């Protein structure tokens, strides 16, 4: 009876907690500042190379002629430009790989701060390349900027997932995607001929990268580190308590600290898991597979092909060269609005319907776009249908597939597994990004107007997999999400815990001792444990 009353009390307390969840000032500032100096720059660098492409190629040609006394041939110029565009993804892969040890030693917030060194360095190299007469500086800057993006797309979702209450974890996680979209749109606006889209001004497009980085450097130090990181990895209960208080906007955070400590007791230790260990852990096999599928589809579904080659696609649709920069603005605006809409409804509708529904709509519009591009010379209004399809594809992507993969990666894994999981997700993300940037021109040349059917097939495969495998994770703890996957992984919850930590019980005992001593020393409030 007593247990039943306690259970009912806990359920009541949980319901009260759900009702009282607020977006505190620190939580809002941390998410906006973190995203502005991180995912915003990723989106900005996806689109910023489109507008000045003609001028940059001219700069390459003039530099080549000045050095060697003759103009560069067309194939070499195309290769140089392709490398300039796609090398960003190679830098991103490097960043994703080195992100894990960095977030381990420096923490989530400090990693975001240190990452700005790469952004500022890249901005200086790229903005001064014309003045120095060196296209190698531009290419090197793109690589370094890719490293910045690779680190930020691992550290930022990790930080946001760890500072947010589970009731608004999805909405806060969508901030990453929203700022990617805002970054894309900003790159398009600044690239207009009236602003920086001129031959003499295109270096300013790259110099502008330093502004968000410097703003983040000024604001982020005044915000707390991830409380989960402080509690579970640094074992600093007092700092974790203060961080929870600031992020949640309340003094009594005993429930939140108990929840995290309970998770740590279930895990038995928080020693970071390597990628190999994570891949060998049977209890998370389907979670890893789902992250690989969602991240692979995030890049391979074809949206980056549209961003990288927007101008070519609109030209094929019959839009005049002078009008293209302004039409392109509509794509960035639609993307941003769709991402904001997704952030507003994700906690009501859930991750699963938005993700599967987004891929489903993309299949429909990719098919219509293929028909429209194939027949556009026979019917005068079909180019406008092509434009509508492109906007619809972008909106469908941003409603679900554009941001939810980052949210899921943070939700599927416990504290000790999360860095390795983000490294796997980042590796798949950037390899797929590079493959699309490099191969799409050849796919387009070979298949012509049927090229988008390839992406429709990938969307179909992803949607089918997610329909059968992905459980709903809305408002669920890690333990509840593990239970949802337990049957598919063919393990019980008890087996999950033993399977992963049997070899590490020594460090487990050490950690429990640390927590016990912390409580004994009065670092936590009475009644927390």
Major sheet characteristics? none
Q: Please state the structural category.
A: mainly alpha
Apparent shape: globular
Uncertain runs are 1-19, 498-529
Q: State the separation between the terminal residues, measured CA to CA.
A: 22 Å
Q: Level of helix content?
A: over 70%
CATH architecture of the largest domain: Up-down Bundle
Number of strands: 0
- Chain-averaged pLDDT: 83
The helix/strand series, from N terminus to C terminus, equals HHHHHHHHHHHHHHHHHHHHHHHHHHHH
Pfam family, one: Sugar_tr
GO molecular function: D-glucose transmembrane transporter activity
Membrane topology: Multi-pass membrane protein
Family: Belongs to the major facilitator superfamily. Sugar transporter (TC 2.A.1.1) family.
Task: Provide a brief overview of the structure.
The chain crosses the membrane at residues 21-42, 79-100, 112-133, 139-160, 172-190, 202-223, 288-309, 324-346, 353-375, 381-408, 420-441, 447-470. With 529 residues, this protein is mainly α.
